[in-house]
Amino acid sequence: MAGNLFGAIANWLHHVFVEQFDVWILLGFVAQALFTMRFVVQWIASERAKKSVVPAAFWTFSILGGALLLIYAIYRKDPVFIAGQAAGLFIYFRNVWFILHERKLTRESGAVS
């Protein structure tokens, strides 16, 4: 019985990760890797500062990974994945806008002083 279960799992894994592998699957893995890097960047920045920090690179990786994952989700025709990634991209771009706006105000106030 256990042999049949392990065989079935092995066959499923082979189908999912080997047989259907194509450029879209590769894109999905690249996108997921970029998306995951945002957590790594945030973790390292927070460890260095000894407090919770969200650096601009977090949002850069969020946009890159999220955009590629959205493309992948559209290709896969997955409505849940499409809605989730599209909504996330709005938030990521909004945060980048806040960062850029704050930098602009800082530059302007520094030039006035």
Automatic annotation (TrEMBL):
It comes from the Bacteria. One of its GO terms (cellular component) is membrane. One of its GO terms (biological process) is lipid A biosynthetic process. Signal peptide: none annotated. GO terms for molecular function: lipid-A-disaccharide synthase activity. The keyword Membrane applies. Residues 27-98 form the Lipid A biosynthesis N-terminal domain. The chain crosses the membrane at residues 23-41, 53-75, 81-100. InterPro entries: Lipid_A_biosynth_N, UCP028440_lipidA_biosyn. Keywords: Membrane, Transmembrane, Transmembrane helix. This is Lipid-A-disaccharide synthase N-terminal domain-containing protein.
